[in-house]
């Protein structure tokens, strides 16, 4: 099972009597939801949750895949399956029509000799792939951006490039920030490929950085970014739901480019939860440097959750603010 959300696919096949189930969910929140849902119906222990790696697909005979929206992510997944699954594997990949494209067929066909396409049903369709060939393990894309080596596995936000919001935030970060010690590291929250954390670590050669993201693809990308820049000894990259692993009152500076997507849906519900967690982790007087789409009007939320908030930069689309914890 690959790219399940909260366990519907995993628990569905478990309920149908399948055994030896291995499942991968990118979001740590999805993993926790699956465990909670399994416990609720007494299905705990009927599956193993694994990273997107060789063990997940080794000798697999059936793979159920919820199609990712990212074509690069799809290429990584089908290449991995073709490299390590049973030669007789059948891959059943489903998705909503509005999120599917003929480019997906072409990518799957790079690694499978036979591809059958189902009729549409309830605005969804299934692609069935057989005869694996030319498999390969995922390799992160790479680029040098603003003096930083960036690495990105398929599906990581912005890929191996610098999005315009993050660029504005980097241009605005203070030259002499507080913190940066082992006990009070700079924090790159929702780190994605880790470019903000890498930027802070390279510009402050003695600084320690804590980078975290709920996505396993993001964490793998950020770790590859830190290794590529030779700073992995000073940057800790953690997979976490927001700042759940951080103690309260433990940071003087947090940088954040909050996501406004949950899977395919656009939402403004993620950032307020992040701001609340930031307020818990910041020391009194500590600062959150945040970039956000100006149309979202986060400033009142920041002031309520954290404290006095000032605009420090703005362009046609994005705003950068600094909020100081009460």
TrEMBL record:
Entry keyword 4Fe-4S: no
Matching CDD domains: AdoMet_MTases
Pfam families found in the cross-reference section: MTS (PF05175), RLMG_N (PF26049)
Domain named RlmG N-terminal: residues: 2-130
Annotated Methyltransferase small domain residues: 149-321
Keywords: Methyltransferase, Transferase
Name recorded for this polypeptide: Uncharacterized protein
């Amino acid at each position: 099972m690959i790219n399940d959300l909260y366990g519907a696919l995993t628990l569905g096949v478990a309920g149908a009597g399948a055994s030896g189930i291995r499942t991968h969910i990118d979001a740590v929140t999805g993993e926790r939801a699956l465990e909670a849902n399994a416990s609720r119906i007494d299905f705990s222990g009927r599956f193993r949750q694994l990273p997107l790696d060789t063990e997940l697909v080794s000798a697999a005979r059936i793979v159920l895949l919820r199609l990712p929206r990212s074509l690069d992510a799809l290429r990584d997944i089908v290449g991995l399956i073709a490299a390590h699954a049973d030669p007789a594997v059948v891959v059943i990949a489903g998705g909503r029509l509005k999120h599917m494209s003929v480019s997906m067929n072409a990518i799957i066909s790079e690694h499978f000799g036979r591809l059958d396409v189902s009729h549409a049903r309830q605005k969804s369709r299934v692609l069935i792939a057989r005869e694996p060939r030319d498999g390969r393990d995922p390799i992160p894309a790479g680029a040098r951006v603003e003096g930083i080596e960036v690495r990105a596995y398929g599906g990581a936000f912005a890929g191996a490039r610098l999005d315009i919001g993050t660029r504005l935030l980097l241009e605005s970060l203070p030259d002499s920030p507080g913190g940066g010690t082992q006990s009070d590291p700079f924090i790159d929250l929702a780190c994605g490929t880790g470019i903000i954390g890498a930027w802070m670590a390279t510009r402050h050669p003695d600084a320690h950085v804590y980078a975290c993201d709920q996505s396993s693809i993001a964490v793998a990308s950020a770790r590859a970014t830190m290794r590529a820049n030779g700073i992995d000894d000073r940057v800790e990259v953690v997979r976490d739901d927001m700042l759940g692993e951080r103690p309260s009152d433990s940071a003087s500076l947090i940088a954040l480019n909050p996501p406004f997507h949950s899977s395919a849906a656009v939402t403004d519900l993620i950032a307020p939860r992040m701001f609340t967690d930031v307020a818990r982790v910041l020391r009194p007087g500590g600062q959150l440097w945040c970039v956000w789409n100006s149309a979202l009007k986060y400033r009142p939320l920041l002031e309520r959750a954290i404290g006095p908030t000032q605009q420090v930069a703005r362009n046609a689309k994005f705003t950068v603010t600094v909020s100081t914890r009460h």
